[in-house]
Write a structure and sequence with these properties.
By secondary structure, the chain is mainly beta. It has 2 helices and 15 strands. It is globular.
């Protein structure tokens, strides 16, 4: 796989499907843009995708005992979605979600969300000059287990009585290519401020049911709970083992123009 200037394209996603359309292999190209696998003899379709590039499809026939090669493929840049117009945009909580995933004592995943939050995105003349501010009501944590939620709200974890909100503020938007952005800022949680980078995928603009313009994105980040709360080893020694030390945050956001 090659980029438009015919340099190797690493980490492109490759899906190999048989004649019935079933996926038999999935993987990524190596640092030299190459992908190799072993399949049974037969006809196959290849689908190659990479963020910021137009998908490519190729057919190939794998023969028994013969190394099958596919000609080099140069991927074209994908059209970029229109960016939001400069000005204030309000996060719409009715069409957005702030979720998290953690491990319960290293075993099953615990899924949860915060049900109440608000935020404003100030889009600059250049997207790189934009600003974002988000406030999340810590007491609105919801893992669908009341006893666990009450514990998470206690002083052992979020201590919502002392810290009723967490805040994220960013003034650094870095374009990573294609639809990918890194939104870098400070998260203030449990009285502690730490730098956090949101790995963000911009999904473009759309029109809502009332004719309003909407901008959408998804984002992820990984937080280390010890950076913000009590020491994990100390909590284990006290018999407290509810949520693991590493937490994955997942955001689905829609925003509408302010006013």
């Amino acid at each position: 796989m090659l980029d438009p200037v015919r340099l190797p394209l690493p980490r492109a996603e490759v899906s190999v499907r048989d004649a019935e359309g079933r996926e038999v292999v999935r993987g990524q190209t190596d640092p030299n843009g190459r992908f190799a696998t072993t399949v049974r003899p037969g006809a196959y379709g290849l689908s190659i995708t990479s963020d910021g590039y137009q998908p490519v499809r190729r057919d190939c026939l794998a023969a028994d005992g013969v190394r099958t090669t596919v000609d080099s493929v140069a991927m074209d840049l994908a059209p970029q979605p229109s960016l939001p117009t400069p000005g204030a945009w309000r996060i719409d909580p009715d069409h957005s979600a702030v979720r998290f995933v953690a491990r319960h004592i290293g075993l099953a995943a615990v899924h949860g969300r915060f049900n109440q939050f608000e935020g404003t995105l100030m889009v600059g003349e250049r997207m790189e000059d934009s600003r974002l501010e988000v406030a999340i009501d810590t007491a609105s944590i919801d893992t669908n287990v009341r006893q666990r939620d009450d514990h998470l709200r206690s002083a052992d974890f979020l201590d919502v009585a002392a810290y009723p909100s967490m805040y994220f503020a960013s003034e650094r938007f870095v374009h990573r290519g294609g639809s990918r952005w890194s939104v870098q800022g400070a998260l203030n949680l449990h009285g502690v401020s730490r730098s956090v980078a949101l790995d963000t995928r911009y999904l473009g603009l759309g029109t809502g049911i009332a004719g309003e313009t909407r901008a959408a994105c998804s984002a992820t980040a990984e937080l280390h709970r010890e950076d913000f709360t009590l020491d994990w080893r100390t909590m284990l020694s006290r018999g407290i083992a509810v949520v693991g030390a590493t937490i994955r945050v997942e955001l689905d956001i829609q925003a509408v123009p302010e006013g």
